[in-house]
Amino acid sequence: MRNKLIVALAMLCFPYIAEAKIVHMSTKSMSLVIDAQAGEEAKFIYFGSRISDDEIETLRKTETPNLSAYPVYGMSVQAESALSVIHTDGNLTLDLAVEKVGETKGKDAKVTMIELKDRHYPFFVSLCYRTYYEEDIIEMWAEYSHKESAGVMLTQFASAYIPVRYGDVWLSQFYGSWANEARIDEAPLNHGMKVIKNRDGVRNSHTAHSEIMLSLDGKAKEKTGRVIGAALCYSGNYKLRIDTDESNFHHFFAGINEDNSEYSLAPGEKFTTPELALTYSKDGLGGVSRNFHRWSRKYKLAHGSVPRKILLNSWEGVYFNTSEDRMYKMIEDIASMGGELFVMDDGWFGKKYSRNDSRALGDWSVDSRKLPGGIQGLIDSAHKNGIKFGIWIEPEMTNTVSELYEKHPEYVIKPAHRQPTTGRGGTQLVLDLGNPEVQQLVFNVVDTLLTNYPDIDYIKWDANASVMNHGSQYLADNQSHLFIEYHRGFAKVLDRIRKKYPDVTIQACASGGGRVNHGILPWFDEFWVSDNTDALQRIYMQWGTSYFFPAIAMASHISASPNHQTSRAVSLKYRIDVAMSGRLGLEMQPSQMTAEETELCRKAISEYKEIRPVVQFGDLYRLLSPYDRKGAASLMYVSPQKDKAVFYWWKTETFMGQQLPRVAMDGLDPDKRYRVMELNRIDDKPLVYEGMVFSGEYLNSNGLEMPLTHKVSVDRSRRNEYSSRVLYLEAVNDK
Ligand code: GLA
Fold first, then answer.
1. Distance 585 CA to ligand 1 centre (A)
2. Which residue's C-alpha comes closest to atom 4 of ligand 1?
3. Which of 257, 385, 492, 618 suits a disulfide with 614, CB 3.0-4.6 Å?
4. Tens digits of per-residue pLDDT, 92-146?
5. Rounded to the nearest 5 degrees, what angle is found at the Cα of 616, between the Cα atoms of 392 and 634?
6. How far apart (Å, rounded) are the C-alpha atoms in residues 158 and 38?
7. What is the pLDDT of residue 3?
């Protein structure tokens, strides 16, 4: 009875389209079309700019490529496949036919499911599509289940497949390393297989990213040309494959990396792949980025419509030398500069073992030798100063030197018969999040903190190690499930935390930018772009990050000079101007700043409050790429109403007699007139056009001339080769 009721309810919310043959998933300006005739293989018909139903009929008759919508292995073994399995009886083939198509309309998105079944085996695949009409995004994923007599081994399980017509297609991808994340690499797609993958186990974006853009009209351009953007939304190991074979297509597959991760699917169990989010724009790379940013703010990122606070994070200011005096002083200092939040980083915990360096992780009780007044004392101090308080944790990890490890050595990831491989500090170990007891433990770390101190406003959630050795002490004979179960456990813990604590702000940090992925953003408000806070290198890293992620999610902090990572000396003005293009914060010891520097930061914080809505909710227009090596870089944000904009310009090289291109603006309303005001000014005199009004048309076509240096006569030490400008543009009411 109960089951029948559930089936009836399911049918109510998921009505099946009786005669569905052609499935047209469309958004405002994009179409994905699949031929799904019952009893036949589901075929790909079209993906690109939006077309009408009439056109689809014509297309079907004239130029439908003979391509599967989701190629599976076995009956055409030469081709790359999205899915391959070993059935219970050892058969390696799949032969899927459409059973039915279902559709459900939500408030913001529509979900379409094409249900497939193997012609012989009771093995089922659902191809799922969630369509966001306004944002021009389609999420694609697959679900598998079966009723065979025992487990079916999944050996390849891509979320989605899209063929892209062969031509002059260029791939934009992101690579990097710790402290050098999200570098852009752009090249034409050649014959053969291009594989972009990750095998870290815990984090997945220090090196290659799981997002790509494909420019269909030759070398990628910012403002023009047809571009496909694709982002796999997953926290774990992934693999993107583009096979350029002898056909007329580049075959793009994206999904979980199946290397050493074959999955034994039990009868009745459902396996759901992560989503691949896809967009298409005729407005170049910039168009794709703006689609992703809008969708990300609205549907992915936690609290995507809430302005972010301006904070001071203690790490580069004190590192592990946490003490009550230092924390109190930092709280006072950031509050007096107009900041809104203080975050105490690493080094605050440990009873038996004090966290004074990279060892002694895992015991999350306050070290009262360092903080006699405890966490409450810090919260009280923050409140007294009118700001909020945040705290650093790294709950997925422990150290060999910790009470946790002494009590529960079985909680760490390590293969049987072997000593575990250690990471940071020679002692760090990853906890086995596939183990429900470990999930409970990690949940408890956060739950205890937030229950004991409900006024904690912000958590910096760090993850500083990879899965270094393959072995779960929990999974017994299912060792190849390790990576997948780790991220299922991670999701379960974060789901529970978000259910109980929906309002707390959580930053995803993973030795810097190791967790920059849309798969984690529903639980996290932002991410730490990189442990490298050097302003010049940040321009490059934030540029790459901006291809898929909005500025509101990019934690971007003003740090000391010379920079602690690169040793580069950069003027405070420049450091401020770069940090102000993301979610502004400070990462330094304010007590070491001169009065003049403090004043400059105070002014910047106050001006950032003015422009915050434009930076955090506006549309991004990248104007001059640092990767083009023209001596400068520039971008701007424009409010959705186009009544306000913030323009950034940073010199990236300095030579005498230098000639730099003049940067045309973009995204302004040509019919509006804008007053120009410089922010963070250090020059003796205002810019010649300070306070003047220009039409959007003029600015979009010509931009404004940028002086190459700062004229500061009083204090020559403020002169520096790293000149930069931030302009605030406000539409004037001419009437
Ligand atoms: C990682 C983070 C840093 C800092 C340290 C603390 O490296 O990326 O921001 O929190 O850990 O140990």
1. 15
2. 315
3. 618
4. 999 999 999 999 998 889 999 999 999 999 999 999 999 999 999 999 999 999 9
5. 110
6. 23
7. 40
Nearest alpha-carbon partner for 61 in 47, 80, 45:
45
pLDDT per residue as tens digits for the range 147-179? 999 999 999 999 999 999 999 999 999 999 999
- Specify the pLDDT at position 107: 83
Q: With the C-alpha atoms ordered 523, 529, 533, 538, is the resulting torsion angle positive or negative?
A: negative
CA distance linking residue 122 with residue 106, whole number of Å: 30
**What would the two tokens of residue 657 be?**
């007699």
Beta carbons within 8 Å of 663's beta carbon, 6+ residues apart: 623, 624, 632, 634, 649, 703, 706
Give the span between the Cα atoms of 102 and 115, in whole angstroms: 8
Question: Could you check whether the bond before residue 562 is cis, i.e. omega within 30 degrees of 0?
Answer: yes
Distance from the alpha carbon of residue 392 to the mean position of ligand 1, in angstroms:
9
Residue 557 structure tokens: 């902090």
Output the ligand 1 site: residues, CB below 6 A. Answer: 315, 345-346, 392, 462, 464, 509, 511-512, 528, 531
pLDDT at 20: 56
Give residue 275's Cα distance to chain centre: 14
Q: Supply the Cα-derived Rg of the chain in whole angstroms.
A: 27
Q: What is the mean pLDDT of residues 624-651?
A: 98
For residue 511, the CA-to-ligand 1 centroid distance in Å is 6
Q: Using the mean position of ligand 1's atoms as its centre, give its distance from the Cα of residue 251 in Å.
A: 39
Question: Helices in 51-195 by DSSP H: which ranges?
Answer: 53-62
Residue nearest to atom 7 of ligand 1 (CA): 511
Can you tell me the mean pLDDT for 402-409?
97
Contact 232, 300 (CB under 8 A): no
